[in-house]
Design goal:
The complex is a heterodimer. By secondary structure, chain A is of the alpha+beta class. Chain A is 54% helix and 18% strand. Chain A has 14 helices and 12 strands. In chain A, the strands form 2 sheets. Chain A has a 6-stranded mixed β-barrel with strand order 2-3-8-5-7-6. A two-stranded antiparallel sheet of chain A has the order 11-12. In chain A, a hairpin with a 5-residue loop joins strand 6 (192-196) and strand 7 (202-211). Chain A is elongated, with a radius of gyration of 32 Å. In chain B, helix 5 runs parallel beside helix 6 (174-189). The model of chain B has no long low-confidence stretch (mean pLDDT 90). Chain B is an alpha/beta fold. In chain B, strand 9 and strand 10 form a beta hairpin. Classes of the chains: A alpha+beta, B alpha/beta. The interface between A and B is medium-sized, with 28 and 30 residues.
């Protein structure tokens, strides 16, 4: 019984394949081209938009990591102004191979520009910013902000009155806050700015550079030497507001956090992985972009499968009489339905192959060379094997279903009605 | 042997019931060539569709070689047709993407016949009907008469127990019709059972037996 069924199945598959093969070989060229083109576009729509959005969100995260938080980010607990037990932290971090850290001191302050021209009750251009005191050498080992200087240079270790301004604080470098009260205006390298600290103490700096990291948390900061900031705030030289840690060795960030927490440093400090430290807005952005990508993919898929449905429906409807004749001769309904499924599998296969060639030979290299330049990231086409594979499988399954339904609908109709065109 | 017993076929359209076949009974022995004739609307094609299992009678039974076909489901009936029947319709209805030869090979493929052998058998018949040079032609490259000949080859290539022909000459001119009838007669001489529906008396009389149907009943059954 089982052998007979297996034999019947084999005959069904063979005959369906024969019918499909001949239909593909000698069917209408226009129908073939349109079907393949629609499936090619569906495939690209499924992959490209989502891939670009993933590329953007990944880059947002990468920029936050590389410009600010590193692999591990340490902040003081709520009840403290500064990180506690810094010497213990440094001693642990110093013992971990291939690991670097950058302790920073931060304070809120107001930066003023063209204050010498502001006379007669006129206010100078001013903006609030996070003034960040850094050790330039340590910072360059942890982040890439020194490489993101778009005008001038990064501050030197011995530079006591140099300041690097984030691009969001000035006009002319980003498309964001041009001409608003929230920026200092058109500040150029070499000009003087004045920082008014919370204690009302004023200090004049020379702008040595403007940086644009495309990470808003960094681009809204101004960077000066940590030693001068300690003095200006009259605080201990070893008081820090944040420590960014990067590791290139075999010890994962979670193990570093474990080591720090094991000596009870976790109670007095907030020790986070990159994922935990990433601003919630970035995670929200990731979710929103992911959702948009999915909506675009589903819409593309719906358009694709409806088109396949219509093509198969029109094709099967116009061949209803032939289908009736074949059924009269004893060609079973499953054989005829399977022949349509084989045809659509072939068209999807061709569409996917052409789509993959377009994707990997043209689109991906193009976006790698000319990424989408957004204010917060550079969007490349990010394609992982699982991302592409899942979408290819979805396209195959959806297309098979969308071919099966109209084929089944037409083929299941009464044989005699089909022959007589009733 | 085909035994048709008290076949009744009603068509129901809303409240209207049309009684097309009113208890038709007859027997067709193996190897007989039967013509079914009658005026339009007499029920001759409906009768052919019941015997050939393309439709189910409202009541009555059709027994073919001891198989009560009324007991067959849709899939079983399809399989039964595949194994036992050949069909020639009013127009050839060849699959446009298949060559003449490929059109005739589908039933063999479905039955799992050896493809090479099936091809050889088909080519033999093409040769005997003088169509060898057209086996690789698509239907669009064949004349109406040639297409109908291919449809006959398609119907007989697997040597079916019964060949059904529904108005096979209706779309052909006189010369082509006579040509086709000579093919059917040749098959009959070789022992093929044929049941043909036609409204053309000239061709109906070429058969061995003529059944005349009117108003859903057999009014005349003559051995010619």
């Amino acid at each position: 019984m089982a052998t007979k069924q297996a034999n019947n199945l084999k005959l069904t598959i063979n005959t369906a394949f024969f019918i499909a093969l001949k239909s593909i070989q000698r069917g209408s060229l226009t129908v073939k081209l349109v079907t393949v083109f629609i499936l090619l576009l569906t495939f690209l729509n499924l992959i490209v938009v989502g891939g670009l959005l993933i590329g953007v969100t990944e880059d947002v995260g990468i920029k936050v990591k590389n410009s600010h938080v590193g692999d591990v980010f340490i902040e003081p607990a709520k009840e403290y102004d500064y990180i506690q037990n810094t010497n213990d932290i440094f001693s642990i971090l110093n013992g971990i191979p291939d690991t670097h850290y950058s302790p920073r001191l931060t304070t809120g302050a107001t930066i003023e520009y063209e204050y010498k021209k502001a006379t007669g009750g006129k206010n100078p251009a001013r903006t609030s910013a996070v003034i960040t005191g850094i050790d330039p050498f340590l910072e360059t080992q942890v982040t890439v902000i020194n490489k993101r200087v778009i005008s001038g240079s990064f501050i030197d270790e011995g530079d006591w009155d140099g300041i690097v301004l984030g691009s969001s604080l000035v006009d002319g470098y980003t498309s964001g806050k041009q001409g608003t009260d929230a920026t200092l205006g058109h500040v150029v390298v070499g000009e003087k700015v004045r920082v008014r600290f919370p204690s009302n103490r004023l200090y004049e700096f020379t702008v040595v550079g403007i940086l644009n990291s495309k990470s808003s948390a960094v681009d809204q900061r101004a960077f000066i030497n940590q030693k001068i900031l300690s003095q200006l705030l009259s605080t201990d030289r070893y008081n820090y507001s944040e420590i960014a840690v990067v590791t290139h060795g075999n010890i994962p960030p979670t193990s570093i956090i474990e080591m720090l927490r094991n000596i009870n440093l976790g109670d007095r400090n907030n020790i986070k992985t990159f994922d935990q430290a990433i601003p919630s807005a970035v995670n929200d952005l990731k979710k929103a972009f992911g959702l948009i990508g999915n909506i675009v993919s589903v819409t593309a898929l719906m358009v694709g499968i409806v088109t396949v449905f219509v093509i198969i429906f029109v094709n099967a409807s116009s061949r209803r009489r032939y289908i009736g004749i074949l059924k009269a001769q004893g060609i079973s309904a499953p054989t005829l339905i399977l022949s349509y499924i084989f045809q659509i599998i072939f068209y999807v296969l061709v569409g996917v192959i052409l789509g993959a060639l377009t994707l990997f030979i043209f689109l991906q290299p193009y976006f790698a060379k000319y990424p989408l330049s957004l204010p917060m990231a550079d969007g490349q086409l990010l394609l992982t094997t699982s991302y592409v594979s899942i979408r290819v499988v979805i396209l195959f399954i959806s297309s098979i279903i969308s071919a099966f339904i109209p084929a089944w609908f037409i083929i299941r109709q009464n044989t005699l009605d089909a022959i007589l065109g009733r | 042997m085909i035994e048709i017993k008290k076949i009744v076929k009603n068509f129901i359209n809303g409240d209207v019931v049309t009684n097309v076949l009113k208890g038709v009974s007859f027997t067709v022995p193996k190897g007989q060539f039967v013509s079914i004739m009658g005026p339009s609307g007499a029920g001759k094609s409906t009768l052919l569709y019941q015997i050939s299992l393309l439709d189910k009678p409202t009541s009555g039974s059709i027994i073919i070689d001891e198989t009560d076909t009324s007991l067959l489901g849709e899939a079983e009936a399809t399989r039964f047709r595949l194994k036992n029947f050949g069909f020639v319709f009013q127009d050839s209805a060849l699959i446009p993407e298949f060559t003449a030869l490929e059109n005739t090979l589908l039933p063999s493929l479905m039955l799992g016949d050896n493809y090479i052998e099936a091809k050889k058998d088909a080519i033999k018949i093409f040769t005997s009907l003088g169509m060898l040079h057209q086996i690789d032609h698509l239907p669009s490259q064949l004349s109406g008469g040639e297409q109908q000949r291919v449809s006959v080859i398609r119907a007989i290539v697997r040597k079916p127990k019964i060949l059904f022909a529904d108005e096979p000459t209706a779309s052909l001119d006189t010369e082509r019709s006579q040509d086709l009838m000579s093919v059917l007669l040749r098959l009959h001489q070789e022992g093929q059972t044929i049941i043909m529906v036609t409204h053309e008396e000239e061709f109906a009389k070429m058969a061995q037996r003529l059944i005349f149907v009117r108003d859903g009943q057999i009014v005349k059954d003559t051995i010619l």
